[in-house]
């Protein structure tokens, strides 16, 4: 009898774990001086009403620009979560209607989320690739005091003075075979930070033979989020985690340890 009860209990717990999908809301026109954006909250956000949560800002590439917000979920952090990757953070995924990302518009969204949700402001992370890689570095270089760590892939930086990037643990990744955005765009950022003596918090990788699409796999790797979450604005002194490495094997197996969801993420009108 006890064995049967134990099996039933285990089954119920397992079902509860798999069913914990979190919530997502399409936020249109909420921030007048910002972009439309998706806001995701993990199941723990509802279950732990007194807790504050980290935030990940994801900026997409040019191919996902437009007015159809579903386009901005085709790859990246939200797509990884929908596929089953566990990310215990609020996720902001703005949609760029076209043109370069404007740091002030992204910041307006962040400020709104901080004012209206339970955010651990010492743990704000920014990630993006391609146009989103430019957006990531431009945002971090403009608001370095707000960002705990950032990952910028196959992008660059258009700020006249990029040295603010040197105040943030920053991992820059670019493939040497990228024809859409040449690796030289990222290399210029690294050179500028080195010349300014502000490269102590910098990591960078030029991955031989990787094309423009290759870095997208980082969004699906568990180690990507482990690396991000290992940093905090409360760290004194600030330091960059160099112990976590994402290898070719990690990228090749990025999807292998993702458990498909038994239930979809709940779509709501607002996150509570």
Question: Helix and strand layout, with pairings?
Answer:
Blueprint: H1 2-19, E1 23-27, E2 37-41, H2 43-47, E3 53-59, H3 77-83, E4 90-94, H4 103-116, E5 119-129, H5 131-142, E6 149-153, E7 170-175, H6 183-195, E8 202-207, H7 222-229, H8 248-252, E9 266-268
Parallel strand pairs: 1-9, 3-4, 3-5, 5-6, 6-7, 7-8
Antiparallel strand pairs: 1-2, 2-4
Helix pairs in contact: 4-5
In short:
The chain is built from 8 helices and 9 strands. It is α/β, with parallel strands linked by helices and about 270 residues long.
Intertermini distance? 41 Å
CATH topology: Rossmann fold
How can the largest sheet be summarized?
Answer: 9 strands, mixed
Radius of gyration: 19 Å
Return the string of H and E elements. Answer: HEEHEHEHEHEEHEHHE
Unreliable stretches: 1-20
Number of helices: 8
Q: Describe the strand arrangement of the main beta sheet, using strand numbers.
A: 8-7-6-5-3-4-2-1-9
Q: Name the CATH architecture.
A: 3-Layer(aba) Sandwich
Shape descriptor reads globular
As a percent range, the share of helical residues equals 25-40%
What class, by secondary structure content?
alpha/beta
CATH first level: which class? Alpha Beta
Per CATH, the superfamily is Alpha/Beta hydrolase fold, catalytic domain
The total strand number stands at 9
